[in-house]
Write a structure and sequence with these properties.
This is Glycosyl transferase family 1 domain-containing protein. GO terms for molecular function: glycosyltransferase activity. It comes from Candidatus Campbellbacteria bacterium CG22_combo_CG10-13_8_21_14_all_36_13. InterPro entries: Glyco_trans_1. It holds the Pfam family Glycos_transf_1. By secondary structure, the chain is of the alpha/beta class. The protein has two domains: about 200 residues, Rossmann fold (3-Layer(aba) Sandwich), CATH 3.40.50.2000; about 180 residues, Glycogen Phosphorylase B (Rossmann fold), CATH 3.40.50. About 40% of the residues lie in helices and about 15% in strands. It is built from 15 helices and 14 strands. It has an eight-stranded mixed beta sheet, with helices on both faces. Helix 4 links the parallel strand 5 and strand 6. Helix 4 runs parallel beside helix 5 and helix 12 crosses helix 14. It is elongated and about 70 Å long.
């Protein structure tokens, strides 16, 4: 699967090739999988760079053997291979010193930028390396970390404390939505730079034109209408609110099914909750599925009950499949600015099962309304998506801007 580079000194034409070098700090281990979308994006960025080096948090149990992998002409991956997750930061900083302190980079004039995929553990690694080597730092923010619901739990409280050190130090801040930008401006953070909005890349052509691998309606012929949830089954996704609302919906629409695709620590509790509401015949737990496309294409309504989202990729995917959407006010919906309530989606306050029930019932009683809202949502999202090439350029332009300051 991997092509390993044995020495740390040799790099792709390091002495002569022009352009920016980027050190990325990441948690996404999908990059080690050949053919993954994460790796494809990294190679796409690198097409506009001199070199891209990616340090990825990993433990030994993840079984990513080797110290360095060259996966394209100028993309290099470095797993931390930490003994414990509590050593990620220490091991990533150590790797960063080896990369940035190597002779090949001291001898070449090409500019370096550090980018971190969150303002938490990754951001702390990046800020320490940035200070040590006097290299510009970009922090990327993908989640609504200033939501009051994010702050629950010891780990996220610790991450908030880290962000207070990292974000004010950053030379560049990339956020994926207006919601995150607004929340930062409304906070106590003192910024060196204005956050720039660059949404997550969505391949609209692939989502629209990939045919379903199976017929969801044929799989569940007992349902006249299907409501879909595609989500990790964790507390912050609040799927229990969806089940509570659906218990009332089926009283009037008994041939409606709620299909839940995803897995997580809350699955057993949610299954018991559905059983307690006597919904076993109407609520289907599909577990984790790689083929979400077939579920989107076989459903009528998409339901999202999350407590917080920075962006909400599932909302985009549902939109591009022309589904009517009922969602809480998170990510790009509602005050997030893209999906406007009653025009592109039905938006509820967080935790309001009664609101979820009302809007699901309205849509289930109105086929014309479902199709109309699905189409408006589709056209709204389609206006916002960029081509892959433009997205890569926008990402790299953000890095190049840092060395011009």
């Amino acid at each position: 699967m991997f092509q390993q580079n044995i020495t740390k000194e040799d790099s792709v034409d390091a002495q002569t090739k022009q352009g920016l070098r980027v050190l990325m700090i990441s948690t996404d281990r999908k990059i080690f999988e050949e053919g993954s979308a994460v790796r494809a994006r990294a190679i796409g960025y690198a097409g506009l760079l001199n070199e891209l080096h990616v340090i990825v948090f990993s433990t030994r149990k993840h079984k990513v053997s080797g110290a360095r992998f060259q996966v394209s002409e100028n993309v290099f991956l470095y797993p931390t291979n930490s003994f414990s997750r509590w050593l990620y930061i220490h091991d990533a900083i150590k790797l960063g010193h080896r990369i940035l302190g190597s002779k090949s980079y001291k001898l070449t004039p090409n500019a370096f930028v550090i980018t971190c995929q969150d303002p938490f553990e990754c951001g702390l690694v990046g800020s320490k390396l940035s200070k040590a080597f006097k290299i510009p730092l970009q922090v990327q923010i993908h989640t609504d970390f200033l939501s009051p619901y994010f702050k629950k739990g010891f780990l996220n409280k610790s991450r908030l404390r880290i962000s207070r050190r990292v974000i004010p130090y950053a030379d560049g801040i990339r956020v994926v939505s207006k919601r995150i930008k607004d929340s930062i401006y409304g906070s106590v953070y003192k910024l060196k730079t204005e956050p720039k909005i660059l949404p997550i890349f969505v391949d609209a052509d692939v989502i629209e034109n990939t045919p379903a691998n199976f017929d969801l309606r044929a799989k569940y012929p007992q349902f006249e209408k299907i409501v879909l949830i595609a989500s990790r089954l964790e507390k912050e996704k609040a799927v229990d609110v969806a089940i509570k609302a659906f218990a009332k919906v089926v009283k009037n629409y008994p041939k409606t099914g709620l299909v839940i695709v995803g897995d997580g620590r809350e699955r057993r509790a949610l299954e018991l909750k559905a059983k307690s509401y006597k919904l076993s015949a109407n609520v289907i737990f599909e577990g984790w599925q790689d083929d979400l496309n077939s579920y989107y294409k076989g459903s009528d309504i998409f339901l999202n009950t999350s407590l917080y989202e920075g962006y909400g990729m599932s909302l985009i995917e549902a939109s591009l499949n022309r589904l009517a959407i009922v969602t809480t006010d998170v990510g790009i919906a509602g005050s997030g600015g893209l999906l406007v309530h009653a025009q592109h989606a039905m938006v509820c306050q967080i935790g309001r099962a009664d609101c979820i029930e009302e809007y699901l019932s309205r849509l289930l009683s109105n086929d014309v309304g479902v199709h109309g809202m699905g189409f408006r949502c589709y056209t709204r999202v389609l206006e916002q998506v960029s081509t892959k090439e433009q997205y890569y350029k926008d990402i790299v332009d953000g890095w190049n801007d840092l060395v011009k300051k």
